[in-house]
Amino acid sequence: MRAKLVIAFLIALLAACAGGSPKRYQAHDSPAAEAEADGDYGGGSYDAPAHAGTSGGDSVARTETRRNDRPGLGTVWGEDLTSSVQSTPFERDSESPFATLGIYYNDSEGVEAHADYRGSVDSIYARTPHGGISVSLTDANGNVLPGLVAAGKTLVVGREGDRYNIVVENLTGGRFEVVATVDGLDVIDGRAGDLRKRGYILNPNDRVVIDGFRRSDSTVAAFRFGAVGESYAARTSGDRNVGVIGVAFFAEQGSVWTDDEIRKRDTASPFPGDRTYAAPPR
Q1: What values do phi and psi take at 166, rounded to 5?
Q2: Is 147 within 8 Å of 155 (Cβ atoms)?
């Protein structure tokens, strides 16, 4: 099932203007995006953002300079993908997220170097501290990208030119808001990431697939791995935060994610019956 996404403004702004609960936009499914094969850019056009600041005569020289500037991968502004949105209400339980996490991506050499720098290696898949919600990067066909966890940081291997998605899965009965960034940029407005910005709705026992920077109510620009110098961040605000994907989770007001509820889940027994031997028949 494709993502159900939401976009919203600051709670304070909505409360002041509407006097009610803040609203988001909920996206419909995007069959065309799912059907697209990985590899080439396909039938879509590779559109640079209008404010990217490139110009005709020296574009080749700039490209060469950017490619030689920093090694590894960044996220470029890819082709348009269909992703329609509609409004849906959601009110945060708190101004602060109950969990945040980061996924660090690079090419295979970069991930190996990063892992050596970090030290001990564990496994793949980033998870929130409370469990029940997981985040991963997948290719265009839904396959989880390879990677590892090194000293607490999740490192994922990408390949230049490939399209990728951020997949957030919810195995709980709660509803959450997901605020996501790529290379330090909010995936909805393309500007510096900020926890006060609004995001995407993660419904109970569902998942959200974030597949690009939002361009309008009906399209996103696909996430594509590319050279750091050609990344969306480098061409707009700077490449300082290239290589990291951030995800923050906000509980819905009135939700049951209290410390007591978490403690119950943490101590839940998969085999609660008494540890006794079989009794003879009567």
Answers
A1: -100, 120
A2: yes
